[in-house]
Amino acid sequence: MAMTFDIARRPFQSATTSPGPDMEAWEQSLGISLPADYREFMLTFNGGSLRPFAFDLSIPDWDFTDKVHALNYLFDWKEVGKRSQWRMEPPLRNIPPDRLAIGSTISELTLTLSTDSGRFGAIDAWLRDTFNVWGEGGNTRVLPVAPSFSAFLAMLHDSADTYHHFWVDFDGDGEIARQVTLP
Q: DSSP 3-state assignment of 79?
């Protein structure tokens, strides 16, 4: 099922070139391949802001009670590397294990892609606590969002109730949005 989105990059995103060589080096160093749908998206767009941007997710026992969340943007490959803390020793990382940080929401969630063989390619929401390493303090919660990157994209919808400032005043503040259709 093809999906049509508006896509653009914010000025702080470095997505000016394809991340192909860097992604391939990462895959070789860890001995895994990225899921085909996410890999294709990154090779084509290298992250960006999407519209529609809203998705539904209920988070039990959390202060933020809204069930509709807004995607800020999907990280470019350079930002995926930084936020996934690849160069840090595992006991020092605050990101949950076997995950790539691939995007953020306006409700302070980090979207992650699982690299674990049991849930390979699944998209989860990490209720991040950057003050603690994973498993300590409040840094213990990850919620399933979608079984794959494609399934996550299929969840995105328009929402009049969700304010998304990146799309409200986007003109002049980044790359011009263009419409794309993804498989």
A: helix
What secondary structure letter does DSSP report for 48?
Answer: B
Q: What is residue 106's predicted lDDT score, i.e. its pLDDT?
A: 82
Query: At 36, phi and psi to the nearest 5?
Result: -55, -40
Contacts 24+ apart (CB under 8 A), 132-141: 132/94, 133/91, 133/92, 133/93, 133/94, 134/93, 134/94, 134/95, 134/96, 134/97, 139/94
Q: Could you read off the pLDDT of 20-34 as tens digits, one per residue?
A: 888 999 889 888 899
Q: Tell me which DSSP letter residue 31 carries.
A: T
Would you say residue 169 has pLDDT above 50? no
CB 156 within 8 A of CB 55: yes
pTM above 0.85, yes or no: yes
Bridge partners, residue 5, by sequence: 180
